[in-house]
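Hi everyone, sorry if this is the wrong subforum. Our group has a chain we'd like a structural model of before ordering constructs, and none of us has done structure prediction before. Sequence below.
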Amino acid sequence: MKYDEKVVVQFKRNSYYQAFCGQTEFSLDLPCDSTELVYFRKRIGKGGVEKIFQVSVGLHGNKALEEMVNIDTTVQEKNITYPTDAKLAIKIINRLTFCVFKSLGE
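Answer:
Right subforum, don't worry. Here is the predicted structure as tokens:
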């Protein structure tokens, strides 16, 4: 999955993203097609991105100029997988298949 596709799917799944972007209610709909992000970036160009950044900094005034910024990372995705019944069942099936083929000498 490409980065833009991940962003669109995360927006759909994450209520924090939706609230940050001004949504007043949680929605399970995709906000846009991922290709629209590519077209948007191409359309505004590097100067447009810089302008958006300057407006963002301007909205926060002197707070944007602080040397140290505290970031809450508790909601960031972690690369953790939890054992589920389905995963354990597949693991058992694969192990048993391996044992059968090994005992048959194949």
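For your construct planning: The chain has a mean pLDDT of 83. The helical segments are 3-13, 15-20, 34-60, 85-104.
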